[in-house]
Amino acid sequence: MNKSGKEKFLYRRSKNSQVKIQRGLNQENFLTNIALKSIFLKNFHQLHNAKFVPFAGYEMPINYKNGIINEHLRVRNQAGIFDVSHMGQILIPLTQDNIKSLEKFIPLNINNISSNKCHYSFILNSNGGILDDIMLSKITYIKNEYIYIVYNSSRKSVLEEIFKKTVRNYEIIENRCLIAIQGPESFASLKEILNLSQNMNFLNIYVIQYNVSDIIISRSGYTGEDGFELSIINKHAEEFLTKLLQKNIILCGLGCRDSLRVEAGLSLYGNEINENISPIQAGLSWAIDKTRLIDNSLNCSSILTEQLNSPKSIKKIGLIPVNKTMLRANMPLCNEAKKEIGYITSGCYSPILKCSIGIGYINKISDMSEVIFVKVRDKFEELKIEKIPFIKKNYKKGDVND
User: Helix, strand, coil % (nearest 5) of the chain?
Assistant: First the structure.
């Protein structure tokens, strides 16, 4: 987008393509010609037969001995453990100066949000494009109030440069692992280890005591299932995971984390969202505090307001092939005239639906009732448009029964 709010489209394949869809698969996630960092528990994962791949500058487990499909089904039916310590964590003192600085590029009213509640939001550029999607909370930690933000590993250098220039006395957390326990049995397993007796609903976040230290724990995740994410001091993390494994929970890698989030219709930075796509274009306007759009302190409020009040130019859709075609990111989408009208942002095999599924963008002017095809080499395979998410989400929105 340019500063007038009009869209600057990136053509998908060649100068002859007419697909006016902004795209941006983050190829940097899988670059191997850079020195890779190791997560703190790498040796622990090696002992448990992890297969590693480069991801966002880190060596990360993609799966374990059970395989991606078994890990996926275990999370849907029981529970699984993910080490997501490659992600960024930051504590920012809850001062009015810091709030004013953050609200220049985060579309939340930070003063008005509740403490001990996670909020999905964005770091936006001046054109309304998404520099990163984040989870932001207000917590009390060591008797002081902080803004706690979790952000993507692939965007660490971008965001940390922004934080350096805009907020004061912040702490980038480097001595904690970030562990996600996901699945319908996650609470039952954690309850005994952490003595969870308080009622925690979806997106609640607390600081609790564990092993003469503390854990920042939220009821959240990236799978569509009930689950928790825990920030735990490095030296206590291995012991904690060992206790969890004794509860018949298995370790899971990035492979099934991706297929789980695609089934749940969740966006991935570099695929569904990037700095050329706004939350409104990505179908995420629900995460914007609309009062901020009349507040000129947000760097892109006028552009977002214009987009909200204008017909959408692109639409995010779910896709299932009529035949057995495997859908992958970057595949072009075409209409019956074989004209490109969009592209696939994410694709994978769904162990629940037992077929390939995909998420993509098409031109909003496309007739939603027309037949859509995916171009696979020189062939055109028919697709069905499906609602997102592909499966029912199972977040815990009621009280937890002790």
Answer: 20, 30, 45
